[in-house]
Design brief:
The complex is a heterodimer of chains A (174) and B (212).
Chain A lengths: L4 H13 L6 H8 L17 H11 L5 H26 L6 H5 L6 H8 L6 H20 L3 H10 L2 H17 L1
Helix pairs in contact in A: 3-4, 4-8, 4-9, 6-7
Chain B lengths: L1 E4 L3 E4 L4 H7 L2 H4 L9 H12 L7 H38 L10 H12 L4 H13 L4 H11 L1 H61 L1
Antiparallel strand pairs in B: 1-2
Helix pairs in contact in B: 3-4, 4-5, 4-7, 4-8, 5-6
The chains are: A mainly alpha (174), B mainly alpha (212).
Chain lengths: 174, 212
Amino acid sequence: MTTNPRRNLANQCNALKSTGPRSVAGKRASSQNSRKHGLSSVPDFESSLEYQALVDLIAKEGFSGFACADIAAGLLNYRRVMDAYYDTYTSPEPVDEFLRDANVKASNPIFIELLSPSGSEPQDVREMAAFFASMQTQERRKGGPVSRRSADSHKLIRYQRNGIARLSRAVRQG
Amino acid sequence: MLYNVHFGVYVDVAMPVEDKSKSLLPFLSSPKLLPNESEAEFQSGLQSLLSELDNPSPLAVALVSQLNECLWWIRRHTADKELLLHEAMARLLSKAGNHWDTYDNHKVSEALEHYLDGRADKDEAVWIDEILAESKLTLSDLRVRAFKDAARHIKMVDDLIHRQHQTIRHLQRSIDSIDYKSRLIKRMDLELAALESKQPVTGALTLDDKSS
């Protein structure tokens, strides 16, 4: 990609204005920006009400204290995975209909108009059109809502595998 | 015997099997269904699974609830495979001929969906037939091409179904293990009781022997 000194300068000036979150609450909120399902974090089941209730329930079935704790944590962990699975399945990444259906060639006048304040050249417009076309290809490759939810759910397979293995092991060794 | 659980919910070991799943911890027993799914159907599946257990413990009921959910997921994913094909067919149909401007739009998808289900009105059927004729495709050709097009996503759904089968296997083993454990405990209790009932008699005999 060729560089345009004026555009580079404008980008650098704009970057100086972007300082990110300043307050503690803002930093805390932005730290969760890329959080998708939260299954990679280590959960604290032991302080939850459900955990204690489950431990008490399982203890009455003749399992040892350690086994009860393992089974309760395994069951809660498995539920956590399945709830995330359901959430992922029911809310897939939305289809960007504008990007998917747009006619790239017909959008050239819009790109020219968008780039004109920064003194654009024909090369810039071509690059922008190419970038837009590649985004459109990616968007189309993702398919419709059913394809998207299948692809998103597929990413959680390993969590399911680990979750059920943990639960099953705890029950059988208990 | 009543097991006290939070939210004021109790699990009664002696209660009928049908009621056990309802009285279990809410987060384990309440199903998360999609808007078009029937809770009655979900519950009837669960009850039929529970009815196959002899005097199930609360943990066994919890595991059977998870197993029923797996079966439900298999159903969803199987329906998704057909939907993926329909999605790909609609996409191919929109791309065919002079329909680039209506790429994958809702109209083609809906009309095709109705057409395949046999619910299409006359206009929709004529329209789909026209597009098929324009693109020189039969419905089965379109299906074959759509399958090729959607193969990557269909494979993903197959993986999801396979995962549920594996999960069911794990759950079955766990339920068997609980069942075996409870039988073992019962048997050991019985043997212990039998030994205890015999012990005083043998003890008395040894004492008698010693004294004599």
